[in-house]
Description:
single chain, 188 residues, mainly alpha, 9 helices
Amino acid sequence: xxxxxxxxxxxxxxxxxxxxxxxxxxxxxxxxxxxxxxxxxxxxxxxxxxxxxxxxxxxxxxxxxxxxxxxxxxxxxxxxxxxxxxxxxxxxxxxxxxxxxxxxxxxxxxxxxxxxxxxxxxxxxxxxxxxxxxxxxxxxxxxxxxxxxxxxxxxxxxxxxxxxxxxxxxxxxxxxxxxxxxxxxxxx
Length: 188
């Protein structure tokens, strides 16, 4: 599945078209920079149809984050499996995402930065997403008494790599540092 543009998941109904359009615009350009009128125009629905499905932009933001979460988690779990399903699958999976031309960082980190102070739900949604990401990481780590704590540390390192990869010209330094942290932590 292509987590960036969702070509495998082309929506058919008006609600789905709105959500797909909002997903693409919010992720690429930011939530605040994308107005409802633009989402309406680019999704090809009438204003009344939009507001029937999403009474406010905040409702659309919540739906976008839920949509992004489901897509990203499905992709991440699949990518971890495709790269071997062990701890050494983490960096190649993350690299696959970072090297996508449409990469714009973590939609949840970005949304908290943009909206956390004005839409507190975003913080809770992001927290839940990060818990699920951490659980996916834990699932590929060796069983040990420290597994949960190691997964939290690796997830934090992934978040740091995500931010670093957003502003560097290349994701190489972020990926190298992530690899080093994982190797040090797990002594693999």
